[in-house]
Structures are given as structure tokens and as C-alpha cells.
UniProtKB/TrEMBL annotation:
InterPro entries: DHC, Dynein_heavy_chain_D4_dom, P-loop_NTPase. It comes from the Eukaryota. It comes from Alexandrium andersonii. This is Dynein heavy chain AAA module D4 domain-containing protein. PANTHER family: DYNEIN HEAVY CHAIN 2, AXONEMAL (PTHR22878:SF70), DYNEIN HEAVY CHAIN 6, AXONEMAL-LIKE-RELATED (PTHR22878).
Amino acid sequence: DGTLMQLFAFFVERCRSALGVVLCFSPIGDAWRTRIRQFPSLVSCCTIDWYTTWPADALGAVASKFLATIPDLEDSVRLACVEMCRTFHADSKELAVRFREELKRVYYSTPTSFLELIQTFKSLLADKRQTISSLKSKYEVGLQKLTTTETSVESMKQD
């Protein structure tokens, strides 16, 4: 058994040998350049993994995983939504190339933007479902009132 200082030194040594830190940065824009200038050891002392575009099957797998959490969505509709997300992402990449060629401006269509597309789709779907549910409820209440009124009118005619 050791003293408190020895235990702390052992703990620190274990942390140094086993601890790993992951930093995620987007290489787009001035913020990246500023960070690199402020902290040059980010380049010199770190292992940099560049993640480029995802292949189509990876996009499909990611979209399937995220869209699997949507309740009451038939499999055929889910597959169509996955394909729609993949198509939107591929088309945005093509349009980004055209945008760069015609306007000399750069737009990046990244995997993060694909994830944002899926999250936006899920959010929009939930909002639209809620709106439709509300409208359906109002319609049913109105229809019920019309039926009640019709019944009342018929009984008044007979009286």
C-alpha cells in the first residue's frame, strides 16, 4: 500500500497512458485557420483523421438508422425516405460544383449537412403529423356537430 501521493501519482500515470481525447473540427472557414494559428500543436502533436465524403451505402445505412426511430412509418415509406435523403445529398453535391463553377463561390455538402437534413426531415414530419392530427380532430368534431344538427333538424321537422 502506498501513501496518498503515491496513489495520486499512480492515477495520473494511468490516465496519461490510457486517456485519449478526440477533437472534432470542421476544416471549413476562418475558425479552423484561426485555431490552427493559435494552437500549432493541433497539427504537430495530433493524429489527424480526415473524413471525406461518405459512400452511397453509408449514407443509406445512416439514414436508415436515424429514420428507424420514427413511429408509425411503413417500411416501404421508410426506404423511399432513405432514397430521397440520399438523392437530395447527391444533388446538393452536384449543385455545389455548379455553384463553384458559375459563381466562383464554395459550398460544402458534408456528412454533417446530411445528418442535419435527416434531423430536419424528422422534425418537419413530426410537425406536419401534429398539424394533420389537429386538423383531422377539428374536422371530426365539425362533422359530429353537423350530424347532431341534422338529427335535430329532422326531429324538429317531424314535430
